[in-house]
Amino acid sequence: MNIFVCIKQVPDTETKITPNGDGSYIETSSIKWIMNPYDEFAVEQALLTKAANSGSTVTVVRVGGVKDTEALRTALAMGADDAILVEADDNLDSYMTAKALKGAIEKSGKTPDVIFTGKQAIDDDCLQVPQLLAQMLGMPSVTVVDGCEEAGGSYTLKREVEGGALEVYEVTAPVLIAANKGLNSPRYASLPGIMKAKRKPLAQHSLSDVGVSADDRRVKYSGFQLPPEKPAGKKFDAMDEAAQAGVVAEVVKLLREEAKVI
Amino acid sequence: MAKILVFSETSGETVKSVTFEILGKLAGHTVDVAIVGDMGANATADLAKYGAANVHNLKGANLDKYSPEGYANALKEFIGSNYDYVFAGATSLAKDLMPRLAGMFDAGMASEVTNFVMEGDNFAGTRPLFAGKVLAKVELDGPKPGFVTVRPNALGMPEAPTAGAGAANEVAANAGDIKAAIKEIVKGASEKLDLTEANVIVSGGRAMKSAENFKILEELAEVLGATVGASRAAVDSGYAPHAMQVGQTGKTVAPSLYIACGISGAIQHLAGMRTSKVIVAINTDPDAPIFTKADYGIVGDLFQIVPILKEELKKVL
């Protein structure tokens, strides 16, 4: 079974984000980069699928900056067999990213039986690449998946929708599955795993190698700015039990008469 | 003038309100609406009130329930070269469907905009990135139509909507080849509106101390008609399921009222709820970061304050 996982490297969730000088993107110089949190569930599910199907390989693919290949090395250390990096800026749009992933997968010479991704990247929050990639490869996709059972290339997938409801899909490989938090518990890379990862193959391509050019840009961003700060609010001390009823009554009155939200 | 289609969904007999928000924002344009499958008896009339010129109902075999491929195939054929832009609310369904459809046209898509204008024939939107830590202007390029999803509650309901013709039109549609089909739908624990669509949210943090204690938030939510949420700390501690998580690795919300109980306000959480219109925070720590974002802060013990708040609200609601 040829298993692929697509991952992205994103700023740590605790990172403060600031626009760059001309507002064309964010300031990336002092950012701590991590594997996109949803992609960790995708990598884990790929490794679980490999373990259940002997003779399978897990290939991890990433499109992004070359200065730091940490996320790919992490996936290799967790147990992926080989990796592909498509060198690109960090601010590609979803269409270019999906097209580059498609090109990289095709260039590997292996036909995917299953592709795992995270449900979205927490930097651009677009939630587009999984469906676009599936569409480009002519594959079905199921996104926001938090339950995955596989037997003989047949998948039962649970997809979370509004109100905590679940849609249960049945689909036969090939399929693209976009992971949500809760799908599994991602393993940590072991020390032997980290040592082994250094010797695993890592192919590198340019965007043009995988058939992507500037003409493929579909989404133009400009004017990056911090959201407007709210004016300071009103704060009431209700640590003293005697004050509580009065404070709550005052806040309810303000919600009704000043904020007009109830 | 740009030719615009709004893809709409119904929930039972009710058209999702985000459709009306989008129609209100597009007042002055000629806008058609498309609904796939069963749409309920009153949908056309309701959509006409908010400005829909034509309401197209796409019907056909295997379109009675959602499938990404079936809906995309049906809509692709219907859209053809008839529209310049296709809008939809950023619901679970549309967030799954629209990128696949955009891919069929090799077209661009702007995800979850919180505001937009039509500059002449061209769309220009505003969208939060990095879970709302920054905002940017977004425009589309490449083949038409451009696809746009709009975050529910972000635009607000139009106050004086312009009525449209609301001409009903049934379209015979083809679902094509469906490889990923829904076998069953497991109902959620909550009958309440999803966090992403809720107008009022009551959220609990690590200070809730246990899953059982969320009961007092549910009681408060009951009085307010609110949906209950949780911070990542509360979810990671096992007090609440991930479906309830508000934040950068949970749901991004935009209610008119957000009540944060025992939430300190980690950057992760603030990112997910900062587009709330009015924020009330209850926390024992007067220096908790949540108070810098709150319109009304109550420094106090949530286990004492929340029950009093519930009783006080009962009096006025």
Describe the structure.
The complex is a heterodimer of chains A (262) and B (317). Chain A has 262 residues and is of the alpha/beta class. Chain A contains six helices and 13 strands. In chain A, strands 9-8-7-10-6-1-4-5-11 form a nine-stranded mixed sheet, sandwiched between helices. Chain A has a two-stranded antiparallel ribbon with strand order 2-3. In chain A, helix 2 packs across helix 5. The longest helix of chain A has 17 residues. Chain A is globular and about 70 Å long. The N and C termini of chain A lie far apart (56 Å). In chain A, 47% of the residues are buried. Chain B is α/β, with parallel strands linked by helices. Helices cover 26% and strands 29% of the residues of chain B. Chain B is built from nine helices and 18 strands. In chain B, strand 9 and strand 10 form a beta hairpin. The longest helix of chain B has 15 residues. Chain B is elongated, with a radius of gyration of 21 Å. The model of chain B has no long low-confidence stretch (mean pLDDT 95). Strand 9 of chain A pairs antiparallel with strand 13 of chain B.
Summarize the structure.
Chain A is an alpha/beta fold and 262 residues long. Chain A has helices at 37-52, 70-78, 94-107, 129-137, 191-197, 241-257; strands at residues 2-7, 9-11, 33-35, 57-64, 82-87, 114-118, 141-151, 154-160, 166-172, 175-179, 202-206, 219-225, 234-237.
How is the topology of this model organized?
The complex is a heterodimer of chains A (262) and B (317).
Chain A: E1 2-7, E2 9-11, E3 33-35, H1 37-52, E4 57-64, H2 70-78, E5 82-87, H3 94-107, E6 114-118, H4 129-137, E7 141-151, E8 154-160, E9 166-172, E10 175-179, H5 191-197, E11 202-206, E12 219-225, E13 234-237, H6 241-257
Parallel strand pairs in A: 1-4, 1-6, 4-5, 5-11, 6-10, 7-10
Antiparallel strand pairs in A: 2-3, 7-8, 8-9
Helix pairs in contact in A: 2-5, 3-4
Chain B: E1 4-7, E2 10-11, E3 14-15, H1 17-25, E4 31-36, H2 43-49, E5 52-59, H3 68-79, E6 85-89, H4 92-104, E7 109-113, E8 115-119, E9 122-129, E10 134-140, E11 146-150, E12 167-172, E13 181-186, E14 200-204, H5 214-224, E15 227-230, H6 232-236, E16 257-261, H7 267-273, E17 278-283, H8 290-293, E18 296-299, H9 302-316
Parallel strand pairs in B: 1-4, 1-6, 4-5, 5-12, 6-11, 7-11, 14-15, 14-16, 16-17, 17-18
Antiparallel strand pairs in B: 2-3, 8-9, 9-10
